[in-house]
Structures are given as structure tokens and as C-alpha cells.
Q: What sequence folds into this?
């Protein structure tokens, strides 16, 4: 019993290539207010969406090893690119549970759509991996999927330009053709994209539901913790942030997004 308690009181590891995973952290904090979190943003290597499969697997493996060395009880891949490409590798090679975002998001979208037409936007690596198409096909093959890679969104967000005219123009170009279909659900298949929601809402009709990764994956994590009696029983919770470059910039843009200071943010070299 003491052994279970001590594992349960360990933090949850959360990682992304940069700031995007904070959108997932926000949902995790809301749904799991008693848990502690270690957040890792691989800011030296962002964006992942333009990298090869081998490189994304290598970065994800190194981060997973780092988080495991910090004794996390579970890891959430708060990145669609790494979830699409590296989830199976990480699950096959780790002793702790690893949860990705794609399956929870697809299940949420399937229960949400009435028109059975779902749009998916993401990085080039996510769209090219076919992870969403394959997951939709295995869960609900009747749904039509329209996909679009939006490679400029991540640099725009990491630059702090999410609410600029430039962001709106780029979004219009990417989404124009998709918005001519009768989709009623749009998967924001990159954890950075919720930061663009105010801009996206200017051009996407109100009846289209935007599905982010945060809430669906937090629900999956919560169910997992419950099923395995791994909810923290400790009275004190804490958070720590690790980045591989530019801690100051991460802190500034990240705090704007989370609405509070992110401290401590520690720069680490894990290569
Ligand atoms: N936020 C990530 C994702 O969900 C990574 C984006 C990137 O680094 O290209 O795909």
C-alpha cells in the first residue's frame, strides 16, 4: 500500500516541442487539481512538424528518459506530432504508462459530429503520418475526413503573433477550401493551435466545433489514474518547467497564455 501511495504521489510528466503543450497542461490542471506536473518544452528543437520520423522519435525518446529520471508516474505526450510518430516506440520501450493525444481526440470528435464530415489540421509531419485518418477509420469508418497541414501556424505562435492580422490571413489561406464542405467539427490536431482560437473564430462559422487535444486527453489520463489507483493522495502539489533553450521567452509567452508566471523554468541539455 505504501508503495502504491508513493508512486501515486509522483508528478505527471508532460512534453511538447515548445509552448503548445501548455494548452494540454491547462486542461490537466483543471481536471486533476491535486496532481503535480513536470512540463518539458523542447524549445531548442521546435518545430517538430518539419522533422523526419527518426528525429522526432529520437527527441521524444531523450525527453522520456529525462522525465523518467525525474521519477514521473506517467507521461502525457502533449504534442500531436510526437504522438503520431513516436507513441508506439515510447510505449514499447518504457516501463511507465505513456498516453498520446490522437485516440482521445478522435473519440471526442466521433461523438461530436452530426454531419459526419470532420476537418483535421496539424503539422506536416502529423498529416503525412496519417495517424488521424487511420484512427478515424478504425473507430468510425463512415466519417469523411478533410485534412490540411498548416506549417506556418507553429512559428507564428512561438513568435507571439497569434492575434495579428498576419495570423488571420494565413489561417484564411489554409482553411478556405475546407470551409466549403459541410464539416461541423474541426480537430485542432496540434497542441499549439488552441492559442490561435480567437483568430480562427473570426473565419470559422460558429456551428463548427473546435476540438483541442487538452480536454479529451485529460479525461483519458483521469480515467487511467482512477482505474490504476494512481491519483495523488498528497496534500501538496507542485509544478516545474524544463526547456532546452530560451527559458525567458518561454516564460513570457507561456505566462501570457496560462495567465500566471511559470516558475521555475530551468534550461537543461539532455542530448
Ligand atoms: N505542438 C506540437 C504538435 O502538437 C508540435 C508542433 C511542432 O513542433 O511542429 O504537433
A:
Amino acid at each position: 500500500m505504501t508503495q502504491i501511495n508513493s508512486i501515486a504521489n509522483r508528478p505527471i510528466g508532460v512534453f511538447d516541442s515548445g509552448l503548445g503543450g501548455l494548452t494540454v497542461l491547462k486542461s490537466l490542471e483543471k481536471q486533476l487539481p491535486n496532481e503535480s506536473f513536470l512540463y518539458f518544452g523542447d524549445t531548442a528543437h521546435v518545430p517538430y512538424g518539419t522533422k523526419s520520423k527518426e528525429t522526432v522519435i529520437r527527441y521524444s525518446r531523450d525527453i522520456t528518459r529525462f522525465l523518467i529520471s525525474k521519477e514521473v508516474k506517467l507521461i502525457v505526450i502533449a504534442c500531436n506530432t510526437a504522438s503520431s510518430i513516436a507513441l508506439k516506440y515510447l510505449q514499447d520501450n518504457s516501463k511507465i504508462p505513456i498516453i498520446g493525444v490522437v485516440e482521445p481526440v478522435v473519440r471526442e470528435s466521433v461523438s461530436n459530429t452530426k454531419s459526419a464530415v470532420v476537418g483535421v489540421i496539424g503539422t506536416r509531419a502529423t498529416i503525412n503520418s496519417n495517424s488521424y485518418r487511420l484512427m478515424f477509420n478504425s473507430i468510425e469508418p463512415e466519417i469523411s475526413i478533410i485534412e490540411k497541414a498548416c506549417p506556418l501556424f507553429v512559428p507564428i505562435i512561438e513568435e507571439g503573433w497569434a492575434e495579428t492580422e498576419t495570423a488571420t490571413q494565413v489561417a484564411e489561406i489554409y482553411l478556405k477550401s475546407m470551409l466549403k464542405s459541410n464539416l461541423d467539427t474541426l480537430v485542432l490536431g496540434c497542441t499549439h493551435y488552441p492559442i490561435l482560437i480567437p483568430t480562427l473564430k473570426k473565419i470559422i462559422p460558429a456551428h463548427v466545433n473546435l476540438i483541442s487535444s487538452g480536454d479529451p486527453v485529460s479525461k483519458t489520463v483521469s480515467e487511467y489514474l482512477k482505474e490504476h489507483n494512481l491519483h495523488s493522495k498528497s496534500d501538496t502539489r507542485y509544478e516545474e518547467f524544463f526547456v532546452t533553450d530560451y527559458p525567458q521567452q518561454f516564460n513570457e509567452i507561456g505566462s501570457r497564455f496560462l495567465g500566471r508566471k511559470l516558475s521555475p523554468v530551468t534550461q537543461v541539455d539532455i542530448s
